[in-house]
Structure formats: C-alpha cells, structure tokens
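Input set for joint prediction.
Command: fold jointly, output tokens.
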Amino acid sequence: MGEYQCEHCAFRFESSRAPHVCPHCGERGKVRPTPSASEILDEIEWMEKEPSREERRARREEQ
Ligand SMILES: [Zn+2]
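tokens >
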C-alpha cells in the first residue's frame, strides 16, 4: 500500500498501486505519490494561491 494525493483536489488516499484517475474528483493524470512532509508544506503553499476565499478560511479553521 502507498499513499497518493490528487494534485487537482488535494484528496489523499491509500492504494496498492498508482491510480490514473482521482477517486474523488475524477481528474486524470493528477494523482501523485504522497511527497515528504516538507514537500507537502510547499504544495500547500502553492495550492493556497488557487482556492477561493471560503476554502482558505475553512483550511485556516482546521489548523
Ligand atoms: Zn482529485
């Protein structure tokens, strides 16, 4: 089993092999193996440029 994350919707899940399609949003070619913790932080900062204001607020409340 390995951990994977969709670069499109940031959905994380475990799978025995790399899926080609995200099980959450159905985006093709966006699923990547989960990177190391430091790389995850970089990706979160990168993704925060994209989400709407409401999504950013929800993310802040989770922390
Ligand atoms: Zn997805």
